[in-house]
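Weekly structure sync, notes
Attendees: PL, DS, HV (note-taker this week)

Item 1: Ribosome biogenesis protein NSA1
DS walked through the input record. Source organism listed as Cyberlindnera jadinii. Sequence as pasted into the shared doc:
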Amino acid sequence: MKLIATAEDSGGFKEIVCVKGTDTSSQTAPQPEKISSFDEQGIRSHIQKLTVVPTSQGDVVVAARANGTISLYKTNETYDLINTATDGLVADSKDKDKFASLTTVSGYIFAASEQGRVTIIDPETIRDDISVASCSLKAPLSAFVGHPTQKGVFAYGGKENDVKIVRLFKESPFEDLKPEQLFQGKNVKNDRLDLRVPIWITNIVFINTDKDTEKSWNFITTTGYGQVRKYDTSHGRKPIMDKKLSDKPLKQVALTSNESEVICSDTNATTALFHVEKGTLVAKYKGSVGAVQGLHSYITDDEQLLVTGALDRYVRVFDINTREQVAKVFVGSKVTSVWLLDTSSGKSVPNEDNEDEKKKKKKRPLRRSEKEAQQENPDLVWEELEQLENDTKKRKT
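Item 1 (cont.): predicted structure, written out as tokens:
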């Protein structure tokens, strides 16, 4: 497998080449063939969002950085920098902006910031005189996504900025870029204490797109208050389903091959498969300690894999259907984004310990960097305290 993980501490990204079954925390498991770092620019210019875009000259890695630039790299062995777009967010302003979304749709790259600025790049021009356009949407913005089949149609929302659907252009963002609002969501009814329910849209995913028309859409949203909501705009402006999945904000979303299911992760340590139609929790992908900041699903006819990158400095790969952990790699830095490029790369690298030493060591002690990463994670502290309390109760009884 060949994966990319962004490293917040160094401001660069890492390429991981390994096989299925790799586990850097296990003495007897296969180890990564290599972990290489690229374009480290420091934490102030760390990568906030990352995606991979297909072009006529091969795939391109696109990285939206905290300094307001959008860097584009070749997917060769050295990940050479192709070009940089600077017509992005104003990173040095008093109210510092951040990238909220980086997506590819209708053949163009769209980078949206929290203050509502949308930067559009034509990927076919990045090797020459790069073409960049921009427009503004209502802020604050936490989610921005394009419709997969309707050209120029997008959905966005944020904190106290309910979900909206707009048409940015009809043919080309470089010819007729003019935002036009098509739909605006309406808040759910007051809670049982008759208090207004706060709004915080964190992610939007279009579903059942074959049923969409020019005036109606089907989509789901996640919120900063742990809810998953389903909308069918032909039935009105309010969601037709509203379920609470977590007590923590839902920040990341990944799709599966089943349009009725979606994978969500919160700011604690929960990554779960959620059935949209039934409004039920199907299963959890366990292992991460701390918030999962990077989430990417790799869907082909042969396999379905989920990649996670968390604050515990591990990149994990799961089989979406069985929830089995396929790979686990320690990268030594907080991960903000992940991407699985392919599953054919990599070869098994055995641990260097001989058989006698393996028998003596039931479990390899953590490397110093791994131990430090766990010690600074508050979730581990609470788990240890809870275990200590349970052991004390058992001794008393």
